[in-house]
């Protein structure tokens, strides 16, 4: 079965161009969403994934309609491919039913893994550099003794002030 997925990021945007292309491709069912690709909860995408059976074909206008990050798109496409779903991108020419399409998909997966490793390396290098300069990350450990002493003094002053106010206002009544 040919199944289409159309998505735009905001409610102001229009799905017509994507839907028209998916209909021309022969999609029997088209799932539509007006929601950001970075949103984890995408009900129509989830419904579509549940609906798939081995041998079905997923048509998208472009692969970037499936998600915002390369990692998310690749993970989704690889997961669907493992279930026997063929993915076709109408504009970008992706077709996982062909050897070239699978090669492209594997290259994209390798690039996504490379990107993750680069980010991890940069993060670790930044943390090491900060530690070498005497900086530590994370939230403050809590109140120091000095801060606790100041807070106790402030509380005492507040209680004294409150007591004085009560005495003063009781004489006025």
Question: What does this entry look like structurally?
Answer:
This protein has 5 helices and 4 strands; from the N terminus they run βαβαβαβαα. It is of the alpha/beta class and 173 residues long. It has a domain at 2-111: Resolvase, N-terminal catalytic domain (Rossmann fold), CATH 3.40.50.1390. α3 crosses α4 (99-132). The longest helix is centred in the last third of the chain and has 34 residues, at 99-132. 18% of the residues are buried. The model has no long low-confidence stretch (mean pLDDT 87).
And the CATH topology of the domain at 2-111?
Rossmann fold
Mean pLDDT: 87
Separation of the first and last Cα atoms: 85 Å
Strand order of the largest sheet: 2-1-3-4
What are the low-pLDDT stretches, counting only 5+ consecutive residues below 50? none
Oligomer state equals: single chain
| Total of DSSP H or I helical runs spanning 4+ residues | 5
**Main β-sheet: number of strands, strand sense, barrel status?**
4 strands, parallel
| Shape category | elongated
Could you give the count of β-strands? 4
Identify the CATH class of the domain at 2-111: Alpha Beta
Secondary-structure element pattern, one letter each: EHEHEHEHH
Strand content: 5-15%
Write out the CATH superfamily name of the domain at 2-111: Resolvase, N-terminal catalytic domain
Secondary structure: helix percent? 40-55%
Evaluate the radius of gyration: 29 Å
């Amino acid at each position: 079965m040919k199944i289409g997925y159309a998505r735009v990021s905001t409610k102001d945007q229009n799905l017509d161009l994507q839907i028209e292309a998916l209909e021309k491709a022969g999609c029997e069912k088209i799932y539509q969403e007006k929601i950001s690709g970075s949103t984890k909860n995408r009900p129509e995408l989830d419904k579509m994934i549940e609906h798939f059976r081995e041998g079905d074909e997923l048509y998208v206008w472009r692969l970037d309609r499936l998600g915002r990050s390369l990692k998310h798109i690749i993970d989704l496409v690889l997961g669907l491919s493992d279930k026997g779903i063929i993915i076709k991108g109408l504009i970008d020419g992706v077709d996982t039913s062909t050897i070239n399409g699978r090669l492209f998909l594997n290259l994209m997966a390798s690039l996504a893994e490379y990107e993750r490793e680069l980010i991890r390396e940069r993060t670790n290098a930044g943390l090491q550099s900060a530690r070498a300069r005497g900086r530590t990350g994370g939230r403050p450990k809590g109140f120091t003794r000095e801060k606790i002493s100041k807070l106790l003094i402030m509380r005492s002053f507040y209680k004294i002030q409150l007591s004085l106010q009560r005495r003063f206002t009781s004489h006025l009544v």
